[in-house]
Design brief:
Layout (H helix, E strand, L loop, with lengths): L12 H21 L19 E3 L5 E10 L5 E10 L5 E7 L5 E7 L3 E5 L8 E3 L8 E8 L5 E8 L11 E2 L2 E2 L1
Parallel strand pairs: 2-9
Antiparallel strand pairs: 1-2, 2-3, 3-6, 3-7, 4-5, 4-8, 8-9, 10-11
């Protein structure tokens, strides 16, 4: 004589349908998310949406749209950038541009202000060197506050775009 015991496991049809419904729902949810379930969101990626580069995470000062406009032979460039200081104190930005023989700048930015460098309304910051050919990049190191600084590649542009024409340097300054 054999004895069968039930160990408290119910095998009702309602419970089986519930488990099947949950499994199908989970499979549909996972299938509809596709690859985006594990792919990073592009809106969370920092990038520069202009011709220059932005310098992220470099202390109290923010550098926006930094680039160089060079003359045709690449011997003279105009450093262009906007420096943002959102603090209540004036801050100093230290910049080194180039490799080997670098151009070192120290720029004081007043509290709660934006300082435009190299634009039509500001004095040009001229950089001399044979390595500034339009279309290339040049290393730029930016440091403010107590941070270690950030190394970026500054794009070198020419005056072919209308809004950059007035920023192209000449031997005597800007054209």
């Amino acid at each position: 004589m054999s004895t069968h015991r039930t160990l408290g496991v119910s095998r009702s049809p309602k419970r089986s349908r519930l488990i099947a419904s949950i499994a199908v729902g989970a499979a549909v949810a996972l299938g509809t998310t596709g690859c985006t379930f594990m792919t990073p969101q592009s809106t969370q990626v920092q990038y520069s949406a202009a011709e220059g580069v932005n310098v992220f995470g470099d202390g109290p000062l923010a550098v926006r749209n930094a680039f160089i406009v060079a003359n045709d032979d690449g011997t003279l460039g105009n450093f262009v950038a906007a420096i943002v200081n959102e603090t209540d104190e004036s801050q100093t930005l230290r910049v080194s541009i180039g490799e080997g023989d670098t151009v070192d700048l120290s720029i004081r930015v007043p509290a709660r202000s934006v300082l435009s460098l190299g634009s039509e309304d500001a004095e040009p910051i001229l950089i001399e060197g044979p390595e500034m050919l339009p279309g290339a990049d040049i290393p730029g190191f930016f440091e403010s506050g107590d941070n270690e600084g950030t190394l970026v590649s500054l794009p070198i542009l020419d005056g072919q775009l209308d809004y950059l024409t007035d920023l192209v340097p000449s031997v005597g300054g800007l054209d």
